[in-house]
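Reopening: structure tokens for the NAP complex, inputs below.
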Amino acid sequence: MKNRAPAVFALFGNPVSHSLSPLMHNAALQKMGIAASYCACCVEDMEEAMEKIKKLPLEGVSVTIPFKTAVMPYLDEVDAIAQEIGAVNTIWHDDKDRLQGYNTDWIGMVRDLEEYLEIKKKRFVILGAGGTARAALFGIRQRGGMPVIVNRTPERGERLAKEFGVPFYPLSQIKGISADCLINTTPIGMAPDRKKSPLARDIIGRFRWVMDCIYNPLKTQLLKEAEEAGCMVINGLGMFVQQGAEQIRIWTGKEPPVALMREVVLARLKEDHGD
Ligand code: NAP
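Re-run output (same inputs, fresh job):
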């Protein structure tokens, strides 16, 4: 980190008002004794926002929906993994005044998944073909797992599957696929649409594990139905905390208080929804 005190970090996205990143990052930075603040910025114009990083100046930025790919041309450097994934969720404004792009979603997902199962040689169905699906594909393959893509829009799913060299199946054929773990990377079931699920109830029992990248609510309709069907379930909280922890490592070079980060987010979710 540079010797700016207090350092300023930000979240760029739209919308950002419901994000729990400020809560989680501020708690972590404070506990680490770093004089810094982290705020959420609702971005309308990405080019303008990117100029602000150097002018303000900001030490680091988290990037979220819908800018994870759009931000890439504005960076001085994008690391090889983020390049392969095709999405950046972390910007570090380095000591040479350069903007470096990274992706921490993939490692967040992998670290959390590995708390529950060994990825190597397991078969995964990744539902969705957006930025999170890309991070999941990279992470699972990196750890020796075998992913397939299932997506609503066949053209998008096929394109992604071809790019990563994995099989693609349309959503209508999901009944015929067997796998160890299903990962939902679509936003279906996210608050406020808590009653929705991306899959028919009778299909879920086919998977031993079901992971939902959504963390708000903690138990999505998909996870409720998966539990009823006897599956082991993994919510998106661990991934959220781990991707944020990795951002702090990149920005500060120090180890963040992961347990505290999890605790503050969990407490807020419980307070808001009784999850
Ligand atoms: P995205 O790039 O917009 O991709 C969303 C995907 O979901 C698309 O493939 C889309 O299918 C599919 N989809 C959307 N609505 C659908 C519907 N009604 N029926 C069927 N498919 C639908 O989004 P993203 O950035 O990957 O984010 C996806 C989710 O992951 C969000 O809920 C986000 O909050 C969550 N996430 C969580 C973490 C974490 O740390 N826990 C990190 C990153 C993201 P089409 O191709 O057919 O449009």
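The chain is about 35% helix and 20% strand. The mean pLDDT is 95. Marking as resolved unless the reporter disagrees.
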